[in-house]
Structure formats: structure tokens, C-alpha cells
């Protein structure tokens, strides 16, 4: 038998029967039958068998499936010991979707794709051995975390660990351009190179001069940002890893840039084909001033980046628009355009209804909470990475006169339900941080020197979480309730505390800190003030019961950590970020990221296969009442949950908002007496609510239309980890 000639695929039919109620009940047993049938009829007969572990590794190395170096770091007796441990854990997939996704997308196959060379246990072992880098103790710890699904490395890391023919371990990249042709050219080259390597690429265009701005004093010569956007979209389409995947990118523009209307217009369905963007994602950086002008129903001025840079001596993105707004308005040397703030707000909402774009980055909110010296000017393809950058200058030969600092994303995720069962929460987090540290230490993107510089100086990582809604349902908490918000805050406080402990420990071991640590709020201790002034211990009986007393750091613990960080520093500039987990959450048999489920029985359209159904984790008559669809939920509850987590996360979160074209009655009080159709006003109110709650970013707006379609549901496969 082979994977190309499967004769019995009845497991798909069994899985599809989940969607056919029997006596008013969901026949969940059909999913277990589908799972067993898949393992029996698809996996077992098509898994290459070996007589011994040594024979298996010799085969994989000699046939260039595995790298030899990471295996040679260990005595083979230890590898056998690690495998014995993994086998004794008796791992089993809990759903058909989990097993199907793993074997379809993650398991190593023969070069002809005709047979499997790995089980889940094998992939875990490869990850543990590779990311432990020869450290036997760390390898065992990593194996323990991954096999019990407390830790899930990002897709690029989990997929590529140990493979000889592989891509990079990082998930995505952030670069920016400054206002000259040399840097624009360098940016396009960087986009080509990074898209070839893999992962989504975020690009900040806010520094580019607007359409009509002068070039060498020739009035009206500049074409603005839209032509550059088209060049970038074509670059991503071309550089797509030999057709294996679509190149993916997002461009960011300041809401105060004069080209903001044409920027948004390029994504509209009825845009002229010469400017219309079909695959490039859009994001807007929004300072506090925009919200102030909206509230006042005032005019707003859009400022020429060319003139602002000449007046302030730094690129447009690095000028504090909120602080300098009145001065910019009064400065006659700066060209400006006047529009109504609420008109622009409506344009943003119109496009979000139509396409799900643009992403919104509340840039002043991000910078206010930023403990690092420098400025955050943009985000990534999934809006959760928020790190400081510095601009670059390029000469006529495309050499750097001044090398800037850009960003690569090294991501991983905790599985909340399984982490809450961890024997030692702090030890688990340290193990994860060390695995992610391997990725940042060994990432060397030399084709884009600004990315290389940023990674080498920052050592940044992004540890996040998945499975929040399934945890709530399992423990009979309604999503968005007071106790669910309280739990979320405490969980992410713990993630923050223990990731700080781990980073401090690594800094002490290596006698090394991230670049410019001495200028950070960590170095002077002010970062820790809020944890010393306020207790984040559980208050409600329900939440107290979920956390053991020894899990919660005391004021004395925080004070000790503060002193240790001030003395020895931190290795990582950034530590936490919540990505919009995709396929990898299915393998973990949990709900994606922090957002609520869409359906109790989720329907997935798989290419060449058809529909596959995935029952929500822990779904039963007991938990059904706690599984409200995101489309039937007040989005302020989602924002409240994310805001509770955001307080403790040094970067951002991929917050998606879900609305129906026809809003269910009673969901939003401002709809009473008005149309039940979703309007731009609804989105305006929710965006302002998120801003007031301190949320740094909003990812997609997903709309479920009256004809059962979803708008704004595309995702970057690299960033959804």
C-alpha cells in the first residue's frame, strides 16, 4: 500500500457523520471511530518500519532526511533512553482532526510522498534533541513538555527541526523603508529574500513621501506609496518557495500619512486594476491623536512625511504625532491636507466590512507600555509582534551607510489547559524559553543585514498561549465573565513572571544581556512597580481553586526578581506575544489562541479532501452551554479578555473581532431601535472600546454574511503557528 493508492478512506465518512445529529445528540463517538480508522488504514500500513532505533536514524541520515550534526551531539544510549521515556507517556491523539493535520502537514515523508517516516513521538524527539543542542537534561525536559502538549513550538520550528532539507525556524519578519529610492530598492530585495526563506513579511511604508511631494525640488514628482505596494505584492507573488506556498506580506501606513485614503482604496473590490491589491495585507498605525479628533468630531490634518523629516531630522514614523500635532499644524513649512477625522474612521470601517482589513495598531498604546529604549513603529503579518526598530540609510551601491535594526519572530505557545496541570509551572516555562532561545541564537538571516542585526542584538522571542476558550468551557466559566477575566490576568501574570525569571537566569549564566538593556525600564527597576503596588493573586473562590498557592508569586518574590534583573539583566529584549494559532491548535486538541470558538462542530474545507469536522475540545452535554460561538458573542467580552492578558504581555496579541452581517437581537445596546445590519458605526464603537481598554492591536475583522460566507478569514500559515 502507499499514500498515493489508498483504497479505504472511510475515516472521512465517519468524521462527516459527526455533523448528522442522532436523536438530537451530536454523535461524538463517530470522531473517535474516524480517528481509529485513520490510524489503522492510513498511518499504520504506510509508516516505514525499522528493526531498531539505530537503524532508523542511520537510514534517515544516510538518505539525507535528517541532519547528522544534532544526533552526533548525543551518546546514542541517551537517545534510546529519551525514546523509552516518550513511549512510556502513552501519547494518543484525541481527535481525528489532530491526527489528520499532523500526518498531512508535519510528519516527515519519503521524498516521493508515498510513506511516512515519522510518528508524533518521532517529531517530538527530533524537536527535543535539536533545540536542546546537546544538553541531555534540556532534551529530556523539552521532550516532557512537548509530548504532554504543554509546549508547542511554532510551525516553522516544529516542522523543520532536524530535517536536512528545511526552511528557517523563524515565523515572520518586520522591515521598514525610509524616504529614498535606494532604501526602497533595498526593501524590495529584502522582501524577495525573506519571502523565499519563508514566513510573512511586514513592511512599514509610513516614511515614504506622499504622492505629489517633491523629488529634488521638482514639484509633484513623487508617486506615493501605492506603486511601491504594487511592487511588493508582485515580489511576494514571485518569491513563493517554488510555488509551494503563496508569499505573504503586510504593509503598514500611518493614519496621518497623506496617502492614507488611496492606501485603503487599493484594497477595495472596485478599485482600478492598475492599483488594486489582491493578496497584500494592509495595516494602519493609529496614534492617540486620531481618537481624540474622532471624539471631538474635528478636522484632522495629514502631514507630508518629506516635510516632517526635513523639519525634525528623523523619519516620519519616529515623530510623536500626538505630542507634536499642534506644532505640525502651525508649521507653515510642512505641507498638510485637511479631512474630517470621522470620515476617515468610516472609510476604515467600510474596508473592514468588505475585506477584514486594515489591521489596527494603536501605536501610542504600544509605546507607552514599551519598557525598551526606542520606538515601536509597526507590527507583523499577524499584528502580535511589537518591538523597537531603527531606520537604515543605503548608498547608491545598495550598501548600508547606517545599518538599521529590524525584526524576526521566534514563536512558541503554551497550551493553557495542560499548563494548568503542570507539576512545576516555572520549570515548564524555563524549558520553553530555552528552546526559543536556541532559535534566536542560531537564526542568522544574513541576506537582510538589518534583520540579522536586530536578532543578534535583541535575542527576542515570543511565547504565547492557546486553548483559553476550551479551558473556560471545561471549568464551567463563560467566556468574558468576571471570573474568566480574572483567570486570564493571573495566567499571563505567571507567564510574565516565569519568563522574566528564565531570561534573567540565562543572562546570569552567560554574562550577557540584550543590547541597550541599561536604558530599559528593567534596568532601573521601574517596570516592576505595578507588581509591587498591586496584588494579582486570585480573589474569587472559583479562580482560587484553579491556582495552587505556591503558583502565585508574592510581593517579596517580585521584589527579589526586580533586584536580580537590575543586577544581572535579561537576555531577551522581548519575551511574550500571542499569535493566532491555526493548524497547530488542532494537533494540540485545543481551541486556537485566546479567542472564542466559531462553531461547536467546526467545519474545515481541506483541499482535495472536502469537509472535515472538528468538535470543540471537551465538548459534552456538560460543557455545551459554555461554548457560545464568537459570532453570537458581544465582542466587548473578547476585548475584555485580551485586555486582561495585554497588561502582562510586553508585545501584542492577534485579536480578531467576529461579527455577523445581521447582528443577533440584544447583543449590543446601541443597536436597539436601529437596523440589525452590521454598520460602520458598530466597528467604530468596538475599535474605540479596544483602544480605551489598552489593547495594542486588532487583527482581522471577520464577518459571517447572511449567505453563510466568511469575510476576512485569510491567515498566514507561518504566523498562525
From TrEMBL:
Its EC number is 1.17.4.1. It catalyses: a 2'-deoxyribonucleoside 5'-diphosphate + [thioredoxin]-disulfide + H2O = a ribonucleoside 5'-diphosphate + [thioredoxin]-dithiol. Residues 558-580 form the Ribonucleotide reductase large subunit domain. Pfam families: Ribonuc_red_lgC (PF02867), Ribonuc_red_lgN (PF00317), RNR_N (PF08343). Keywords: Allosteric enzyme, ATP-binding, Deoxyribonucleotide synthesis, Disulfide bond, Nucleotide-binding, Oxidoreductase. The keyword Oxidoreductase applies. Gene3D superfamilies: 1.10.1650.20, 3.20.70.20. The keyword ATP-binding applies. InterPro entries: NrdE_NrdA_C, RNR_1b_NrdE, RNR_lg_C, RNR_lsu_N, RNR_N, RNR_R1-su_N, Rrm1. Provides the precursors necessary for DNA synthesis. Catalyzes the biosynthesis of deoxyribonucleotides from the corresponding ribonucleotides. Belongs to the ribonucleoside diphosphate reductase large chain family. This is Ribonucleoside-diphosphate reductase. The lineage of its organism: Bacteria, Bacillati, Bacillota, Bacilli, Lactobacillales. The gene is nrdE.
